Amino acid sequence: MKKDLHPKYYSDAEITCACGNKMKIGTTKQKINVEICSKCHPFYTGSQQLVDTAGRAERFKTRRAKAQPKKDKKVRKSGNKIKVVTASAGMAAAKAKKIKK
């Protein structure tokens, strides 16, 4: 085996949290500073805030309905008759003609 392959292990290393909590555990670093620990983490302290997600689908549907493209109107003249056709109806008619052939 190679000598000095593994780092030095400190069995009484001190971990200090930003909230002031201090713990002693075994690690390869002698001192570690952390921002959050089990004493101040919202999940463990019970101060976790739940976000209400109700109504998200309804809000999405209303935004989607507002964003629908407006249908273009085309005026067709055939003889004495004037016919107003929306773009989507015109496309459907064109597709129907292709299918029949």
UniProtKB/TrEMBL annotation:
<feature type="binding site">
    <location>
        <position position="19"/>
    </location>
    <ligand>
        <name>Zn(2+)</name>
    </ligand>
</feature>
<dbReference type="GO" id="GO:0046872">
    <property type="term" value="F:metal ion binding"/>
</dbReference>
<dbReference type="GO" id="GO:0003735">
    <property type="term" value="F:structural constituent of ribosome"/>
</dbReference>
<dbReference type="GO" id="GO:0005840">
    <property type="term" value="C:ribosome"/>
</dbReference>
<comment type="similarity">
    <text>Belongs to the bacterial ribosomal protein bL31 family. Type A subfamily.</text>
</comment>
<protein>
    <recommendedName>
        <fullName>Large ribosomal subunit protein bL31</fullName>
    </recommendedName>
</protein>
<dbReference type="InterPro" id="IPR042105">
    <property type="entry name" value="Ribosomal_bL31_sf"/>
</dbReference>
<keyword id="KW-0687">Ribonucleoprotein</keyword>
<feature type="binding site">
    <location>
        <position position="17"/>
    </location>
    <ligand>
        <name>Zn(2+)</name>
    </ligand>
</feature>
<dbReference type="InterPro" id="IPR002150">
    <property type="entry name" value="Ribosomal_bL31"/>
</dbReference>
<keyword id="KW-0689">Ribosomal protein</keyword>
<keyword id="KW-0862">Zinc</keyword>
<dbReference type="GO" id="GO:1990904">
    <property type="term" value="C:ribonucleoprotein complex"/>
</dbReference>
<dbReference type="InterPro" id="IPR034704">
    <property type="entry name" value="Ribosomal_bL28/bL31-like_sf"/>
</dbReference>
<keyword id="KW-0479">Metal-binding</keyword>
<feature type="binding site">
    <location>
        <position position="37"/>
    </location>
    <ligand>
        <name>Zn(2+)</name>
    </ligand>
</feature>
<keyword id="KW-0699">rRNA-binding</keyword>
<comment type="subunit">
    <text>Part of the 50S ribosomal subunit.</text>
</comment>
<comment type="function">
    <text>Binds the 23S rRNA.</text>
</comment>
<dbReference type="GO" id="GO:0006412">
    <property type="term" value="P:translation"/>
</dbReference>
<keyword id="KW-0694">RNA-binding</keyword>
<dbReference type="Pfam" id="PF01197">
    <property type="entry name" value="Ribosomal_L31"/>
</dbReference>
<dbReference type="GO" id="GO:0019843">
    <property type="term" value="F:rRNA binding"/>
</dbReference>
<dbReference type="InterPro" id="IPR027491">
    <property type="entry name" value="Ribosomal_bL31_A"/>
</dbReference>
<feature type="binding site">
    <location>
        <position position="40"/>
    </location>
    <ligand>
        <name>Zn(2+)</name>
    </ligand>
</feature>
